[in-house]
Amino acid sequence: MPKNRTETKDIFINYIKNNQKEFVSVIILFFIGLILGVLCINNTSEIQKTEITNYVQNFITELKENANIDRLSLIKSSIQKNFITTILLWFVGLAVISIPLVYLFIAFRGFCLGYTIASIVATLGNWDGILFVASGILAQNIIFIPCLLALGVSGIKLYKCIKQKNGNIKAEICRHTFFSLFIFLLLIVTSFIETYVSSQLLVQYIKYL
Fold it and tell me: What is the pTM of this model?
């Protein structure tokens, strides 16, 4: 393994070790949101379940009838959403109530993911639903979720530095900014995965539904 790759790996390992409590807290909040999203589907009324089923079925039908996805629009939309996510988590590190905002945002993203997965599984059944999720959602989230959590931790770290006046605040703001830019570059990768890998897998899988 090249030296620079080893050094990068060591930086990430040390970053996680130095912020273990923060990582544990955001991971717990994310999974709480995920579970709440699943429970929300299980406790919806029959009318709401019907609306969700119709939405998923209409989505599948549209993909079957028109498999030519507008990838340019899709990747623009995905990058825009990831940019907004990065900016929000960069900004909340500077906010007075930063930690609650970070926790709320992380939990909300977990809720959205759990709600989406549960909706698909409830509509298609366990096996088909899991395969649908694996085809269209899993690949990009393998990168997206750790990036989201790491960016949340970076915001918490900045907030603590500002509140406790511990260390060079300007340097910490610069660190948080450059880290946010690095995470955004990784999120752009997830946009390409979503557009050119997951969407193609999903189209191929839907043909067999």
Answer: 0.86
Contacts of 69 (CB under 8 A, 6+ apart): 63, 199, 203
Q: Looking at this protein, which amino acid is placed at residue 10? A: D
Q: Read off the pLDDT of each residue in 171-179 and give the average, rounded to a whole number.
A: 89
pLDDT exceeds 80 at position 190: yes
* Helix 71-92 × helix 169-193 angle, to 10°: 160
Angle between helices 199-206 and 46-65 (to 10 degrees): 100
Q: Residue 16 is encoded by which pair of tokens?
A: 């996680």
Highest mean pLDDT among 58-62, 131-135, 163-167: 131-135
Q: Say how far apart CA 72 and CA 152 lie, in whole Å.
A: 29
CA distance 75 to 65: 21
